[in-house]
Amino acid sequence: MELSVLLLFALLTGLLVLLARGRPKAHGRLPPGPRPLPFLGNLLQMDRKGLLKSFLRFQQKYGDVFTVYLGPRPVVIICGTEAIREALVDQAEVFSGRAKIAVVDPIFQGYGVVFANGERWKALRRFSLATMRDFGMGKRGVEERIQEEAQCLVEELRKSQGALQDPVFYFHSITANIICSIVFGKRFDYRDPEFLRLLELLFQSFVLISSLSSQLFELYSSFLKYFPGSHRQIYKNLQEINVFIGRSVEQHRETLDPNAPRDFIDCYLLRMEKDKSNPQSQFDHQNLIMSVLSLFFAGTETTSTTLRYGFLLMLKYPHITERIQKEIDQVIGSYRPPALDDRAQMPYTDAVIHEIQRFADLIPIGVPHMVTKDTHFRGYILPKGTEVYPVLSSALHESCYFEKPNDFNPDHFLDANGVVKKNDAFMPFSIGKRICLGEGIARIELFLFFTTILQNFSVASPVAPEDIDLTPQESGVGNVPPNYWIQFLPRQRG
């Protein structure tokens, strides 16, 4: 009994010491927010449903810019379209720093194109954009790859003969194969055991990263890292993916032809060789592994999760599905595959895809930013290194930009003449210098995969539309749609 009391006392003492040590010295003039308690920060004022609910509630009281203490450290929260644009676009350079996400930081440690800062980030981003462009991003090359992958999916869905399916596997497979073709120079068979294992690791990690336990870890990582939890499973999963990436890099190294680079990894290895005598070069092995992990993870999860939400919404609103299929039949017909050029003649389908992205709200609190120097913003002074969360969800649900922000309504993106209209609050890929690297490819994937599936199949569910629940199963760094079953029923041609 005495031992238990002593252990508890030691744990509490350790927690207080760690939190006190991690408490930053206040300087500058941060925006007001809920009053923090020593060590606990604003934990007791947080919503039990997680950070997003908490931030939106605080926005009601403190306005669009306020400070929240996540455990011992202050974070500036920016809500609303205008405030987010002022920060990430009007002051793009100073808000371009990247803060850590506690549950994945032990893996990335500031390496790779997503979590790097300073010159490392600038060099890696320039290289990644140029290389992905060379391998087809935004060009005809990638359109043809997506069309081919979409036809592979159609054949796979035909084999199901209308049986109930969990769509996770299909949507992961097609989106992963597109990024794999750019990064690894190959696509995988849908039944390849190694491929299936990688997809399982990616999906499980995305769910865990978005869980409530990972949000709690964000507040007290310096203490909780010593205990079991989802952070350890995430680390294990991503390390296993990194082992695969490392093997692939070695295979590329052994078969590299300097005159004919096949993919992103080849181009990176050539750049490493070119820069080997430059001690300032950012092109080393660690940045290669972490950049490939970043592209593979983001390139698979973002589009596949959006597609999963999209088809759940099609089951919920069958009249919208029917209208899309009517537009597909009129513009494309049934005997040729959809092409990117069709998008301009299909405003309703395009508006629906925009609305799916808005409603799915994939990365609701945004990937954390950091200011790169002392910064004046809306009358406050944010010291260099201050973490900033741009709450993208607050823009995507802003009532002055979307008439019915909590409803799924494609008319949000159509003008009075039925033409797709631009909306400043539409920022599912974020905005500014840290905008998603794969925005261009994701937009092409969403249109071609979505239209190809609905050209060939009607969708059905064992659950009545009015009973379909759209509530995310997890809502943290990402919004994870609920699990559901779907039937893909072949449509009659002609």
UniProtKB/TrEMBL annotation:
Taxonomic classification: Eukaryota, Metazoa, Chordata, Craniata, Vertebrata
Domain of life, source organism: Eukaryota
Binding positions (heme): 436
Family membership: Belongs to the cytochrome P450 family.
Protein name (Swiss-Prot/TrEMBL): Cytochrome P450
Subcellular location: Endoplasmic reticulum membrane; Microsome membrane
GO cellular component: endoplasmic reticulum membrane
Function: Cytochromes P450 are a group of heme-thiolate monooxygenases. In liver microsomes, this enzyme is involved in an NADPH-dependent electron transport pathway. It oxidizes a variety of structurally unrelated compounds, including steroids, fatty acids, and xenobiotics.
Gene3D superfamilies per the UniProt record, alphabetical: Cytochrome P450 (1.10.630.10)
GO BP: epoxygenase P450 pathway; xenobiotic metabolic process
The organism of origin for this protein: Bison bison bison (North American plains bison)
Membrane-related topology note: Peripheral membrane protein
